[in-house]
Amino acid sequence: VQLQASGGGLVQAGGSLKLPCAVSRSIISIGVMGWYRQAPGKERELVATVTAVGSTTYAESVKGRFTIFRDNAKNTVYLQMNSLKPEDTAVYYCNTVRGAKWAWGRGTLVTVSS
């Protein structure tokens, strides 16, 4: 399975980005998908999850600013990021949440300038 995250870039604090993650297989049977991020010098963390029927959870640090959703027909998971902060700077990845992970892929770099 290949995971292709995209949409990252350089944005000023307060700005927005929308990250799509295309999955090379059907995700309709995947119960929970998630977006993760890894900041420089830190461990990878889970920031948002979405179930097959659209229920979501968020890390406290992004709650109210980020929205995760999925399009099962397009095998794509999205992360809408608003009110970005410099501390959101990281490489962002998508993957399954429960059970074995797929190969991580390269992720997409988001840099937020102050």
Would you summarize the structure shown here?
The protein is built from no helices and ten strands. By secondary structure, it is mainly β. The model has no long low-confidence stretch (mean pLDDT 96).
What integer value in Å does the Rg equal? 13 Å
Order of SSEs: EEEEEEEEEE
Helix content: under 10%
- Which of globular, elongated, flat, extended, rod-shaped describes the shape? globular
What's the β-strand tally? 10
Question: Which structural class fits the helix and strand makeup?
Answer: mainly beta
Strand order of the largest sheet: 2-10-9-4-5-6
Helical run tally: 0
User: Uncertain segments of ≥5 residues (pLDDT<50)?
Assistant: none
| Amount of beta strand | over 45%
How far is the N terminus from the C terminus?
A: 36 Å
The overall average pLDDT, rounded, is 96
**Sheet of most strands:** 6 strands, mixed
